[in-house]
């Protein structure tokens, strides 16, 4: 079913769909990008695959794309580095600009941004090589969560329930980052909020609740099993839903996101208080992904979602 006219499809020009890449999330990015590519082609858009791991920036410039859809996840695609290259090349792109992408990719930087705005996020400390771990335990208590702050898809994350396991959790996360995030564990429900748009026009889609086997929403349960359950719209009362969506939009705008992103939230079981976890500025678009699920709850097809995101492609740095 067509969601745009042939005239608009032609007006969007030659489109590059960037996926694959060199991050630890390459496999997921290939799934996301393949879905986006097929969706755009189904609408008569002149869309072409481009894998930055296999081709150079010179190749990207030579393709003379009129705009690109970024379906890369993680480093070298979601962290601002590619966005900077596209700005230099003058190629409009989907999603957030250089600074917002870099902040969103860094869980520590985004938490600091939210705290400065008075937005709720779990207490945390950072750990570096050789640090005494006892102050971490004293500050956060147990259980706590150890994370590699620049990874996504639950890569480099460990829940620590015993003090003697903290060193091993740190070592696992340190495979990916030099500075590690240790965060207070919030027992509660896992929610995620998709945001579309920019600034005052940014809007939240229905909340998705994630119910993973044994509460473990890891890499495998995200992408490769059907055991995880999703509820959309999440069974949350109207007033609390509106509050969570507002916090998510505020978090999105605090980081400076635009186009689209997904904000992950924990809803504490003890008192229904929400806590911001992270913002994903280039979220998954696979068959298991949460952004298409939220869009479907509003009656928006996968194809319509891809087209709306593509329409928002722009250059950011040249506007000022």
From TrEMBL:
Cofactor-binding details, from the entry: Binds 2 magnesium or manganese ions per subunit.
Binding site for Mg(2+) 2: 278, 280
Required co-factors: Mn(2+); Mg(2+)
Keywords tagged on the record: ATP-binding, Cell shape, Cell wall biogenesis/degradation, Cytoplasm, Ligase, Magnesium, Manganese, Metal-binding, Nucleotide-binding, Peptidoglycan synthesis
Superkingdom field: Bacteria
EC nos: 6.3.2.4
Domain ATP-grasp span(s) in chain numbering: 111-311
PROSITE patterns: ATP_GRASP, DALA_DALA_LIGASE_1, DALA_DALA_LIGASE_2
GO (cellular component) term, any one: cytosol
Annotated catalysed reactions: 2 D-alanine + ATP = D-alanyl-D-alanine + ADP + phosphate + H(+)
Single GO BP term: peptidoglycan biosynthetic process
Positions of the catalytic residues: 25, 153, 289
Pathway where this protein functions: Cell wall biogenesis; peptidoglycan biosynthesis
Subcellular location: Cytoplasm
Record keyword Manganese present: yes
Main function: Cell wall formation.
Protein name stated in the entry: D-alanine--D-alanine ligase
Encoding gene, per UniProt annotation: ddl
């Amino acid at each position: 079913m067509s969601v745009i006219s042939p005239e608009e499809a032609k007006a969007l020009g030659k489109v590059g769909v960037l996926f694959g890449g060199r991050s630890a999330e390459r496999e997921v990015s290939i799934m996301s990008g393949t879905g986006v590519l097929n969706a755009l082609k189904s609408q008569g858009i002149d869309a072409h695959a481009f894998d930055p791991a296999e081709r150079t920036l010179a190749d990207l410039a030579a393709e003379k794309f009129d705009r690109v859809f970024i379906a890369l996840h993680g480093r070298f695609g979601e962290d601002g580095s590619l966005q900077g290259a596209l700005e230099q090349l003058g190629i409009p792109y989907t999603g957030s600009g250089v600074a917002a992408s870099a902040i969103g990719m860094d869980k520590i930087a985004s938490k600091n941004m939210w705290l400065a705005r008075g937005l709720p996020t779990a207490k945390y400390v950072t750990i570096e090589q050789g640090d005494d771990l006892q102050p971490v335990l004293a500050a956060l208590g147990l259980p706590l969560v150890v994370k590699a702050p620049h990874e996504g898809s639950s890569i480099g994350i460990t829940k620590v329930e015993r003090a003697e396991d903290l060193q091993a959790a740190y070592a696992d996360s340190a495979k990916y980052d030099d500075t590690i995030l240790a965060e207070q564990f919030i027992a509660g429900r896992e929610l995620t909020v998709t945001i579309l748009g920019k600034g005052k026009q940014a809007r939240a889609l229905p909340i998705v609740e994630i119910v993973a086997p044994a509460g473990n929403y890891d890499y495998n349960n995200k992408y490769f099993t059907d055991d995880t359950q999703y509820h959309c719209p999440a069974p949350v009362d109207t007033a609390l839903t509106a509050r969570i969506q507002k916090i998510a939009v505020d978090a999105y705008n605090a980081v400076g996101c635009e186009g689209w992103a997904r904000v992950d939230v924990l809803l504490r079981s003890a008192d229904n208080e929400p806590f911001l976890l992270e913002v994903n500025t280039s979220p998954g678009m696979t068959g298991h992904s949460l952004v298409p699920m939220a869009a479907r709850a509003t009656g928006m097809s996968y194809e319509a979602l891809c087209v709306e995101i593509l329409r928002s492609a722009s250059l950011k740095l040249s506007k000022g």
